[in-house]
Task: structure prediction
Amino acid sequence: MSTVSASEVTIRQNKKEDITFLLQFVEEEGWDWSMYDHLSHTRLDPNYLLVAEDKSGEPVGFCAVTKSAPDTVYVSSFIVRKDLRRSGIGRALWKAMVQRAGNQNIALDAVKGMVDWYKKNGLQFQTFRTFYHIFTITDDMKKSYASNYETIALSEEMWPALLAYDQYVYPNFDRTAILRAWFSGEDVHVAVAMDAGKIVGYGSIHKKPNNEYGLRNVFGDNEDVIQALLHDMVSGLQKGAVVHFFLLDEKRLPTYIKHSVKYEEAPVRMYSKVRIETNTARMWIATAHLI
Ligand SMILES: CC(C)(COP(=O)(O)OP(=O)(O)OC[C@H]1O[C@@H](n2cnc3c(N)ncnc32)[C@H](O)[C@@H]1OP(=O)(O)O)[C@@H](O)C(=O)NCCC(=O)NCCS
Result:
């Protein structure tokens, strides 16, 4: 591996073959990010990914800047190859990202060590914080479960009601394009909880490599709804499968997944120009990657 300084890198749009490098960098970092995330970002914004390349054209760093709404970009996958950090490559990527973002509101989920740096660099508002957890599927979790709530798979005709529910959590922000992008494809299942014909919550789970899964948004009227959704999404997985999720810091762990292991990594949602309000009363699991 060569040594590279900021003056020797060029920032460019990503190419298809770059993604194997990003997947490798992210795996080394231990992030909950996989091909599903790349495909979802791409559906939302095909040009979402900036790459820092060395003189040979090899990627040495990334910064995703996904156009997620008419005036909002979501910044993620800000990462530089481990052995090349602290030599200015990240700063060069950040500069290119700021130029791309222009006047738009920037949203991101900051790892703990970076919060002050982001604040210094214009991300002046903070909203919720989540804690990273994982759990393993046990025999107990596969048993049937009596709930007051029926859960069904999301179908096309349910979209208007699902988006209306989403507005309880994001009262001033339309997530139609975001949810359409993330709830597409074969690797994702979206469960909707119903009570007397009315939506009372929803959640999504997607498949990652190596018998691992990720929960993204799991929202609901109360903890019983969350339990019903979790049971719907994970009870059919193989014993031993591993599930990743980010629990809102103000929520306790639902009993069904109480054996989850908590990591200290607690990303903080930050914004540059406008705080996007989130009604966390109905939010249990929320993640980086989705505004
Ligand atoms: C964050 C990261 C992309 C920065 O890239 P880099 O090439 O090391 O950064 P640079 O050398 O260009 O430094 C840019 C600035 O980031 C700061 N910085 C770099 N790494 C930092 C860290 N771990 N914690 C706090 N600040 C950091 C530098 O002090 C510098 O500040 P300045 O511009 O005020 O002088 C890189 O360290 C990385 O890949 N980290 C692991 C992944 C990660 O945590 N990403 C952020 C997720 S929110």
